[in-house]
Amino acid sequence: MSAFAKRERYGRRRFLGRLAGIVAAGAVAPSLLSAKGGTKGSKPDEAAPLVDSPPVLQRPTESGIVVTWAVGRMATGYVEYGERSDRLDRTAWGDRHGLKPCHERFLQIRIDGLKPNTRYWYRTVTCSFDYHDAYHFERGEPVYSEVFAFETSGPNRAEGSFSVINDTHNHQPTLKRLTERLALVGADYTVWNGDLVNSFDNADMAVEAVLRPGGAAFAARKPMLFVPGNHDYRGRWARNIPLLLPEWEHPAEEDRPFGRNFVVRSGPLALIGLDTGEDKPDRHPAWASLARFEPWRAAQRDWLERALKSPAVATAPFAVAFCHIPLHWNDPNGNGGDLTTGYASFQRQAANLWGPLLTRHGVQALIAAHNHKFRYDPATSDRSWAQIIGGGYGQTDELTAIHGRAVGDAMEIAVDELNTGTELGRWRFPKRN
User: Fold this and answer.
1) Distance of alpha carbon 43 from the chain centroid
2) How far apart are the C-alpha atoms of 328 and 345, rounded to whole Å?
3) Res 46: pLDDT
């Protein structure tokens, strides 16, 4: 059994103090809190495991990828990789401004300079780090992970595939069933379509919910794409989630503020990630004037238009968008996230801003979540995209995993219901114009 699965449970700690080290190249702002204070003379917690999760692949591009993993005490690390499983002859150090990463709870290493549509093998290397003061510290012996393989993204493949999970809320039995299903399907990417947790309260809970959900190495070989849900913005620790869910570093300056939006190309398939934010208006008293999601959704309209015109999307025969809160609803007078009572069934502002763009550019499907109940809305004469809403944990008996595969002249999307083992629907989409 692996170290992360055998780890002893240790007391939850409050995570005050300053960021002890730079976690990854460009991944974490210096204002983020560390897992616990990196004070002078601090000693490692010997009861905690050094390596506390398997690696999780994120932020995949044609030329790079981010490897994230959890540690149980102050540690540094790096990634060894190569194009052969028996020859990991390259090293990614993750250094930024001259400093290699060192942190008490998370390590992130960006691997750059990769070739598109190419298989690589890698392993993480973790070393404990006992910091006494600026000139006195001790580095432990390296601890090596299992060797894993991944493939870089790109257009030059005959087929592309994805799976979608959503509304897991850190319910471990649910996560175990979903990750087992993901392992059987083996899609190129797992889109985690929001509400990973009820709220991000501390780093220990974040590790359990995201980096080893259900105790599984669910994204050590196939990257995970994070789409934020409204619950992922809640909790005292929510502003620290780039420590384990790194934001995208878009090359164009005008796109850089949109670190939670993405475009990933998987063969003939373009995947587009959007952020619907909270399910209540910014003026809602629950947010105590801390929310500004309405300007954020409005700003994404221009990002989306640029993304849809980009070569990665414009040349793709198939295009699927993802957001947590649905954009279409059968009752236009329902709660569209603009009422101070209840919660949104759909996101009216985003629907008005983004929906026409998705139609104009021929996006074939939008996959949403939030309502914890499966639903399918077919495309119409004035809306190019069908909407599929995934079922989730807790409120209904429906627990779904959605799978899409594009090959040849068609894309198929199917919805599995895990409680009964039945298929709720399967739809075929031709190439877009």
Assistant:
1) 32
2) 9
3) 66
